[in-house]
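Please, structure for the following, as tokens.
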Amino acid sequence: MKLTFATTVLSALVSSVAGEYLFKEDFNDEGWASRWTVPTGWKGKDELGEWKHTAGDWHGDNGDKGIQTSVDAKHYGLSAPLAKTFTSGDNTLVIQYSVKHEQDLDCGGAYIKLLPGGDKFDAVNFGGDTPYAIMFGPDVCGSSNKRTHVILHSFLKDDNLLIKKDVPTETDDLTHLYTLIINPDNTFEVRVDNKAVREGKLEDEFDFLLPKEIKDPDSSKPEDWVDQKKIADPEDVKPEGYDDQPEEIADPEASKPDDWDDEDDGEWEPPMIDNPDFEGEWEAKMIENPEYKGKWEHPMIANPDFTEDPDMYKVCKDGCSHVGFELWQVKTGTLFDDIIVTDSIEEAEEYAKATFFAKKDAEKEMYDKIQEEKRAEMGDSDDDEGGMPDFDGMGMGDEF
């Protein structure tokens, strides 16, 4: 097996970080497919796209490969077991992986899932209906839907909770690193390229808890409550003759054409125009309502069903045993690499240094070179096709 720079560094990291890794995948060997299962029971063969093992068209190391979606308008599925089942306790949970969109992505997901199931996990039938603990990563569809999904399972509500406010995502053609950290103090952090783009309390950013207050069910707006701020002035009277003005009048500047023949053309009638004196339907002017009491606000009371949940962070309370991709892509070319699941933020950061950050500058350099060559080719093509033809040499002479 060819050892890349990243692989060499990774071998030295195993004993240098105190945390426990639960899953690592760099896809750098041909045996990667034996570690992952394609869910052939989820979709038919004609609906499932094929995963391509490649470093991509631009990269930091040709021997450092990932897996890439390769056929347009297909579903993509894949799952693999963790090295050790993770059960939420007094420990941090970190999921991190890299994503590169080599296509001009118009609609497609690129998120990863952390899955429960243990020995009963059905890898062959893994799909959209399979329960999950976490769904995390970029999702793009159209110009308005561009976000990094963060969806966490709530055991209290038995539901999957989407973060309330969209988290930004990257949409360029380069590799980006996505990291989700869930802490046992019920806080979380989302990083892109190891920079925080969202962090806070789970209870603030997700609907884990019921509202602490609710509207008093025994209260209602009093029947005599006046919430109309303005009323028609009862002393304002419509002027006499106001309705006498028609909406249209005959154009006073129009005259019968000289060649108009009443016998042949009928009786001439001037064209109609808008009446400048017409003011529309009369309405009394509005004044402040002396009976106005303001906007009625429903009294709030303590929610009798509210309970604190100190275990919001325990998305893997029953144990998470697998990671997986379950995607739909209209235009393909998304490449995934360098996945890690761990209970150590430090280990995830070290892994990022040895993989993503070790390759990013060389990838950018290669990408820029490719784009420069494309621009040059387009320029040459324009030069070949542009300009007017030389008609002097086409036998047209002075006649053209």
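The longest helix spans residues 356-385. Residues 239 and 282 are 9 Å apart (CA to CA).
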